[in-house]
Amino acid sequence: MTSSDGSTGTADAVVIDSLALSYGPTRALDGITFSVAAGSVTAILGPNGAGKTSTVEVCEGYRRPDSGSVRVWGLDPVRDAAALRPRVGVMLQSGGIYASSRALPVLRHLASFYARPLDVDDLAERLGLQQVRATYRRMSGGEKQRLALACALVGRPDLVFLDEPSAGMDPQARITSWELVEQLRADGVTVVLTTHLLDEAERLADHVVVIDRGRVVAAGSPAQLTGDAEVLTFRATAGLDVGALAAELPLGALVTESPAGSYRVEAPLGPEVLSAVSAWCAENGTSPHGISSGRRSLEDVFLELTGRELRA
User: Boundaries of each ABC transporter domain copy (predicted)?
Assistant: First the structure.
């Protein structure tokens, strides 16, 4: 796909280099560096206060960094805001919509500013906004979120920043929003999203950037980050000697207990591993139950990297 600036779509849409930003004595960003490939979906993950929203706000031109640089389509998002505005869609978590506004008039008004906007009625229908008659003040959380998403997309942007795009949505609306993101990628649109839903990132993202305490702690595709590791989980008597169990398993197996009585084995899985776990538990006067197995998830990786659960 060739974008409106004549590029082939193979260049980076966003390049962030050594980004630093402080709020008073608090260091929000501490040398953030990563790039976003044109036409891809990049998910930025991090615990509360990690710096992901600050990173996106600098990219959107809402904040100036203390040092480092950001380029969006090769342009400075603050200095070149007028040139970027027609090409960039932004979904704010706070919505940024007047309290007395209604969904369809807002979308039609925004569409009037663009040369090739999306069809407002079609977009509203897909996001379940056609029948929403309440003012923004009286909309449900999910309705506000769907309207904010529609506002970010109506101008047919080349690049869109989505802050928690499906937060507060019911399952059906969440699936619709995911399908919209997938359609954007198919159309060559670059998407940068922050999310607290790890299954959302795992499904949608081509590239994942994990930020913690203002630094990038990992980056790669979901497959690269999760690797080939397999996981067996089970419940048993609390306080078992996990080191002794690991010694009975293939070399390199990792056994952990968290919370008490819940055990996790990371090792190449096979019948011999399950047999060894069952036999060892029996020898130690207990039996494993609630056994499940599968590949390591993005959530597993996130917890290993940050030691904290991801929350909205």
Answer: 14-238
